[in-house]
Design brief:
246 residues; Arc Repressor Mutant, subunit A; 2 domains; 3-stranded antiparallel β-sheet; 12 helices; rod-shaped
């Protein structure tokens, strides 16, 4: 019995040795038969390479379609994210600056300057007393002249106010020593402005200005005067000649 068992084992042992000599190995197990994820990925890329080699145009179109789908999905996700951020952000009101009355007046004056040859005055911010003083000076200087001549006298006063070489108020310009002969000789104190003087002031306030920046005037004469020898003559209007500095 024992001998028989040993023979069987010996036979089995000899068979195993013969199998090893022939290079046979144990049969693979079920675990080895299973395909790993890496193998699947490799097979996938092999199939794609084969498709690209066999059908290059169709494969290219397929790739482009897939790329477009991915791009569209990415854009949609980005858009949804941006909408979500906007919803979370606090809404701030946009304030539109209001145009003040002063700015509107300035704009209108600039437009009028471009469209006409007249030079509009820089400011009309004076009170009733200053208006009375300018109308009074127009009466003292140009009582017998027309409305525009009286307006030119008023503009000379205003041109001096806006010049750096003269006082910066209407009252100080009119009362400056030796500035206007009618004020120095007392005629200014004896006259009262008539309706035409007030009309001349209204003409100036409406934007009319043909003074050409005149700072001086005198009664027109053929003789030699300080004005016509030291100043540049601009023009004559009525009985007056108007000048500016050289």
């Amino acid at each position: 019995m024992e001998a028989k068992t040993l023979r069987r084992q010996g036979i089995k042992s000899d068979a195993d040795q013969n199998d090893r000599r022939r290079g046979s190995f144990p049969k693979p197990t079920t675990q080895r038969k299973s395909t790993t994820m890496i193998t699947k990925i490799k097979r996938f890329f092999k199939r794609q390479r084969r498709l690209a080699e066999r059908y290059p145009i169709a494969y290219t179109v397929r790739i482009l379609i897939v790329a477009a789908i991915i791009t569209g999905l990415a854009a949609g996700i980005s858009k949804l994210a941006s909408i979500g951020r906007k919803d979370q952000e606090p809404q701030t009101a946009v304030e539109t600056p209001e145009v003040t009355t002063t700015e509107k007046q300035t704009t209108q004056i600039e437009i009028a300057t471009e469209e006409t040859t007249t030079r509009l005055i820089g400011s009309m911010d004076w009170d009733a007393n200053e208006s009375y003083m300018m109308a009074k000076m127009a009466m003292a200087v140009a009582e017998s002249e027309d409305t525009e001549c009286k307006a030119l006298v008023i503009l000379v006063i205003l041109n001096r106010v806006w010049s750096d070489r003269f006082p910066d108020t209407i009252k100080r310009v009119i009362t400056q020593q030796n500035a206007f002969t009618p004020y120095q000789n007392g005629r200014y104190d004896r006259v009262e402005p008539d309706a035409d003087c007030w009309e001349a002031l209204n003409l100036v306030m409406s934007g009319w200005d043909e003074s050409q920046g005149a700072l001086y005037f005198e009664t027109t004469t053929d003789g030699e005067t300080w004005h016509n020898t030291h100043l540049d003559q601009l023009f004559e209007h009525g009985a007056l000649t108007f000048y500016k500095e050289k």
